[in-house]
Amino acid sequence: MKALLCESFGSSEQLLLKDIDTPVVNDNQVLIAVKACGVNFPDNLIIEGKYQFKPELPFAPGGEVSGIILSVGKNVKKLSEGMRVLALCGWGGFAEKVVVDANRVFPIPAQMDFLHAAGTLYNYGTSYYALKQKAAVQPGETVLVLGAAGGVGLAAVELAKMMGATVIACASSEEKLAICKSKGADHTILYDQDDLKKRIKEITNNKGVDIVYDPVGGTFAESALRSMAWNGRYLIVGFASGVIPELPFNLALLKGVSIMGIFWGSFAEKEPMENLKNLSELVHLFSIGKLTQHHYKIYALENAADALKDLKQRKVIGKAIIKIGDWEEKMMESIAHDPAPIANTTLKTEENPPVIFKSKTELKHHIGKNLGTTQWLEITQARINEFAEATMDFQWVHIDADKAASHLPGGKTIAHGYLTMSLASQFLYQLISIEKINSFVNYGINKARFINPVQVGSEIRMQASISHVEEMPNNGTKLFLNCSIEIKGQEKPAYVAEIISLIF
Ligand SMILES: NC(=O)c1ccc[n+]([C@@H]2O[C@H](COP(=O)([O-])OP(=O)(O)OC[C@H]3O[C@@H](n4cnc5c(N)ncnc54)[C@H](OP(=O)(O)O)[C@@H]3O)[C@@H](O)[C@H]2O)c1
Asked: Which superfamily does 355-503 belong to?
C-alpha cells in the first residue's frame, strides 16, 4: 500500500511517498481503507518531533481519517467489516490503510460523505465540548473567537452561532474574516490592525464578552481577558502562536471569570459516553445541514506535504483534507452502506407460506383469523449496531457489551424497542401477500406495549391476525393487525401492538 512517510524528524518537505506492507490488526483494532484524512495543527509538530508523543520512525503522519473497515480484531464487538467510519489514529492516516484501536473508531451515517467525516472529530469535537460542556453557552451570550478562521476556531464560530450566541470573530486577514462571516460571525475584528479591547467595548456597549475561545495564546490573550463581562468563561484551547501567555490572576478575580482548560483528547478518554453523545449530535447536525464545514482545499496523497506547509504558513482557512485514492463518493456509499441482506426474511417458504389475498376485499373475510407465525430471526449485535448508527441513538444499553456485562440483569446488551418494532413490517411480508396492489406500507403503530427486553443473541418471531379493515376515500385501504413478537424460550412476548398498514 502507498503511504507518505516521515523517515526522520524535521520538516514536512522531507516526506516521501513509498510502498509499504499493509499493517496488521491486533485483537482490539480495526483495519481501515482510508478515503480521506484531515490535516491538523499537531501533524506538523509530530513531524518536527516537537509533540507530546513521538511515533517510531518511519511513520506516516495524519491523525484523523474516514474510510471503510476492511477487517476487525477478534475482540472488537461493535464494529464490523464494510462499515463507514471516522477514526482518530494519532498518525498513519496519510496512507491507503491504517490500523486504529476500536475505541477510537465511530460509525458515520450514509448522509455524511468521507471528506466531511475526516474534518469532524478534531475541530468540531473540540469546539463543541468547549462551548457545550465547559462554557455552557446560553442564547444571547457573546462569544469572542480568536484564530477564528483556523480549524477549531471556525468550528467554534459555527457552533456558537448555532447555540444562539452573538459571535465576534478575530483573524489576521479580511479574506479570513469574510469566511467567518459566512459561517455566522456577527462581528469581525482584524486583530493585527484593530485595537481588540476598544472594538470589543464598542461591539458590546461596554459590557464585555461572556466567553473567550482562545486557540492562539500569545499577545491577544490579555486584551481578551480584560474585555470580559462579569461571570465570563475564558476557554484555553491551544497556543497556535507558540506563546503560552502569563496573565495576572487578579483579572479573573475582579471579573468573576472562570478560566477553563480544554483538552478534548482527555475528555474523550475519561468521558467516552459523553463524547460519543457529542459526536452523534454533531454528525446529526451535519447530516441535516445545520453545520457545514469550510474546506480550504482537497489535496491528493502525493501533495499532502503542501497541505502541511499551507497550514504552517497560516494559509489554511477552516480545514485542509487529503483525499486518498481516486474514488467517487456515490459509488462507495452504495457499496459500503447497503445493509447486508437480512437473514431469515425470505418472503415465501414451503413450510411457512404467506396467506395470499387475491384482492383487498378478501382481507375483510379474514378479520379475527390468525395469519400464522413467521420464522425465527436472530437479533445480532451487528443488527443492533446498525440500528444505533441509522438512528444516531448510541445508548450504552444497546451497544456497550462490557458495561452491559456488569450493569444489566441479563449481562447482555438489549435491542432498542423501536428496533424490534421496526422489524414488524418485514415480518409481515412473510405472513401476507396481496395480489394486484401497488404498495403496502407500514403506516403506524397503535396501542403498543413493550413487555420484555430483547437481549442480543435472542431469536424472535411474530404472530399476527387482522383486527380491522377500513376503506379510504382515495381507493386506499387501512389494514389493522394485532401483532405479538415472541422471544424464543420465554413466556412473555417482547411486545404486543396493533400495527396499521396502508394498501393502495
Ligand atoms: N485543547 C484541545 O483539545 C485542542 C484540540 C484541537 C486543537 N487544539 C489546539 O488549538 C490550536 C489551533 O488549532 P487549529 O487546528 O485550529 O490550527 P489552525 O487551523 O492552524 O489555526 C490556527 C489559527 O491560529 C492563528 N495563528 C496565530 N498565530 C499563529 C502562528 N504563529 N502559527 C499558526 N497559526 C497562528 C491563525 O489565524 P490568524 O492567521 O488569523 O491569526 C490560524 O488560523 C493549536 O494549538 C492546537 O494544538 C487544541
From this structure: Hotdog Thioesterase (3.10.129.10)
pTM greater than 0.85 (yes/no): no
Pocket-testing residue among 188, 216, 275, ligand 1, by greatest number of atoms within 8 A of Cβ: 216
pLDDT band at 330 (very low <50, low <70, confident <90, very high): low
Mean pLDDT of 10-36: 96
Residue 275 neighbours by CB under 8 Å, 6+ apart:
125, 129, 267, 268
CA-CA-CA-CA torsion for 216, 175, 306, 123, nearest 10 degrees? 50
CA distance 150 to 156: 10
What DSSP element (H or E) covers 401? helix 401-407
CATH class as words, domain 2-120+293-333: alpha beta
What would the mean pLDDT of 307-318 be, rounded to a whole number? 97
**The pLDDT of residue 333:** 37
Query: What is the whole-number distance in angstroms between the Cα of residue 50 and the centre of ligand 1?
Result: 15
Mean confidence (pLDDT) of the chain:
89
**CB within 6 Å of ligand 1 — which residues?**
40-42, 122, 126, 147, 149-153, 171-172, 176, 215-216, 237-242, 262-265, 311, 314, 316
Please state, for a pLDDT cut of 90, what percent of the chain lies above it.
63
* Per-residue confidence (pLDDT) for residue 255, from 0 to 100: 95
Question: What is the distance between the alpha carbons of residues 261 and 259, in angstroms, rounded to a whole number?
Answer: 7
> pLDDT at residue 489 above 80?
yes
Ligand 1: residue of 314, 315, 319 to mutate (most ligand atoms within 8 A of CB) is: 314
- pLDDT tens across 256-295, in order? 999 999 999 999 999 988 998 898 889 888 877 889 999 9
User: Closest ligand 1 atom, CA of 264?
Assistant: 3
361-372 as b/e, with b when 16 or more CB fall inside 10 Å? eebbebeeeebb
123-267: CATH topology? Rossmann fold (3.40.50)
Give me the residue spans of the domains in the chain: 2-120+293-333, 123-267, 355-503
Atom of ligand 1 nearest to the CA of 192: 41
Indicate the residue type of 334. Answer: S
Grid coordinates in use for 115?
Answer: 471528506
Mutation pick for ligand 1 pocket among 158, 189, 235, 237 (CB with most ligand atoms within 8 Å) = 237
Measured N-to-C along each axis, helices 272-287 and 121-128 cross at an angle, to the nearest 10 degrees, of 110
Q: Which residue CA neighbors atom 28 of ligand 1 most closely?
A: 241
